[in-house]
Amino acid sequence: MKKVLVVFCLILFVSFTFALEKDVFVNLTGAGEVSSLDPHYAYDTASGEILNSIYDNLIMYDGESITSFLPMLSTVVPSIENGFLSTDGKVYTFPMREGVKFHSGNMLTPKDVEYSFERGLLYDPAAGPMIMLIQALTGGKYASLEAWFEAYSGMPYSEAVDENREVTSEDARQKLISFYEEVIDPKIVVDGNNVVFKLDNAYAPFLYIITHFAYWSVIIDSEACIEAGAWNWEADGWWKWHDLQPEETPLNVGDFGTGPFKFVEWDRTQQKVILERNDDYWREPAKLKTVIVENISEFSTRKSIIERGDADVAYFGASYLDQAEDLEAQGKVTLSYGYPRAAVTSLHFNWGVSEGSEYLGSGELDGKGIPVDFFSDPDVRKGFSYCYDGATFIDEVLNGLGKMIPADLPEGFLGYDPTLPLSTFNLAKAAEHFKKAWNGEVWEKGFELQLLFNIGNDERRTAMEMLAFYISSLNPKFKVTAQGVQWPTYLRASRASFLPVFTIGWNADYPDPDNFITTYYASYGVYSARQGQQFMDFARENTDALISAALLSTDVNEREELYIEVQKIAIENTLGVTLYMPLGMNVRGTWVRGWFPHPIRSGLYYYDLWKE
């Protein structure tokens, strides 16, 4: 009987092992759903993870390094030493790899590279990633296509093109056409088998902005894009493709790449994306055949699935470190944690909520809501700041997998200054500022407010619940609650400037302090519009010049001093509340191979992974 039992157990073990399906990889995320598969619109980790496996870039990082590069679709990483970067740092030349196929079957040509970057520049969606390329090409002078056009033509873009994307006059049409022909088109040109980028000024982070994991700089299939209805590569009418909503562009749900995986399906109901291996990949094909990425907001569901071996990776927030350790002790998962991340999670205020927001309650300071400019009063912002108990949050919620930092710049970056003051939890100070806010009316009348968070992100949920509890405890007329919504809803509401308060994380796009300082504290930063017009006016007067000077300076010490000065202004005026700098954690099956941490990568890069 004992022998029979042993044989039966062996059969079960072998059956379970085969059930893992060696070439199928299942990733259970929990922090958010994909927002778009258009690489020129998407600007979030969930989308970036998918795009990094569908598309390739000109160059890529060398393994775990964030300072060394390897060729990708280009055969060379330009440098002054090899002659593919001009001595003045303005002209980059990329010889293109031959014999590479897009997923459509079309062959990659240098013209595809030109189209990829020009289409992105002209599209330039509001609050999207193209700001980085525009700044790089213009030496930091402009942060949007519209500002660039106005500087060239002397005509505001809104006066040249109406709300229906029609030109307002023949003069406007000619200026728009000339802008493309004389300004945009000469920036990226094809010279034989080379693609040449011409910058207005030397720009140190340029290679970072176009390397792999920078999914806004991927190379797309120009022929297939045009056939699908994307920009037709004509100078006359390019504005009809400018600042489209994601559902208006064919790249939103599509595949126009050369990458190691092909897009198969995006099931929005199940919040699931399926990828399949590209067997014609110009490097050797990936070891995995199928990738399934599914967003499951409920932690217990994610845990039970990976615990029984039916997933390969599962998102465990820092608050669940102890449960991950238990699974590791049982031999069910491999756990890596505590590694540094180039990231920040912070809370920011909207000084002027856009018309149409459903998150203002009554819209008045009458105890039943807040006015649109509620957070333009610094005493309101300071009151909120003093209600955040960061030390307790990091210790008890993040299990130590986070660090308090003074401002929205991670430790280790140029300009990080540990002597700057950290946010302080002090309810007496909070009450003091709330009593002064709006000439005493806030304390006298009270207010109602919902603090939104994206469902599935338990750390943000807890942070908002704690903040709501402490603020509400100060005055019975303060009625603050935490409310969860799906990630696409949260993202769209914040991008439309509808959220009075928003909690957001920022993973570095590239390892330079400008990527954080500009993002949060410049009038033209990615998050500036979400903070309202009054905030942008404040930034223009107080931080923009400092940030621009730091970006263009070649003196490291000068850059450091300028970035510290910006942080001092941010802290003094409570431009936001830095909640924490996260430390990384990865929970994966014991059979997963090839994973390593990379501070710039969005999620996983499936080409690196395999199963044993």
Written description of the protein model:
By secondary structure, the protein is α+β, with helices and mostly antiparallel strands. The chain has 21 helices and 19 strands. A hairpin with a 2-residue loop joins strand 5 (188-191) and strand 6 (194-198). It has 3 domains: 23-32 and 256-339 and 584-611, 3-Layer(aba) Sandwich (D-Maltodextrin-Binding Protein, domain 2), CATH 3.40.190; 45-248, Dipeptide-binding Protein, Domain 1 (Dipeptide-binding Protein, domain 1, Alpha-Beta Complex); 343-583, Roll (Dipeptide-binding Protein, domain 3), CATH 3.10.105.10. The strands form 5 sheets. Strands 1, 7, 8, 9, 10, 11, 12, 13, 16 and 17 form a 10-stranded mixed β-sheet that branches. A 3-stranded antiparallel β-sheet has the order 4-6-5, covered by helices on one side. It is globular and about 70 Å long.
Structure at a glance:
With 612 residues, the chain is of the alpha+beta class.
Descriptive key words:
single chain; 21 helices; alpha+beta; Dipeptide-binding Protein, domain 1; disordered N terminus; 34% helix; Dipeptide-binding Protein, domain 3
Which CATH class of the largest domain is shown?
Alpha Beta
Number of domains: 3
Radius of gyration: 25 Å
Low-confidence stretches: 1-19
Count of individual beta strands = 19
Q: Indicate the CATH topology of the largest domain.
A: Dipeptide-binding Protein, domain 3
Percentage of residues in helical conformation: 25-40%
Secondary structure layout:
Layout: H1 2-19, E1 24-29, H2 45-54, E2 59-61, E3 69-71, E4 91-95, H3 110-123, H4 131-138, H5 145-153, H6 157-160, H7 170-184, E5 188-191, E6 194-198, H8 206-210, H9 222-228, E7 261-267, E8 272-277, E9 290-295, H10 299-307, E10 313-314, H11 321-329, E11 333-340, E12 343-349, H12 378-386, H13 390-397, E13 402-403, H14 427-436, H15 441-445, E14 447-454, H16 458-474, E15 478-485, H17 487-495, E16 501-507, H18 514-521, H19 533-542, H20 544-552, H21 556-572, E17 576-589, E18 592-593, E19 610-611
Parallel strand pairs: 1-9, 1-10, 14-15
Antiparallel strand pairs: 2-3, 4-6, 5-6, 7-8, 8-9, 10-17, 11-17, 12-16, 12-17, 13-17, 18-19
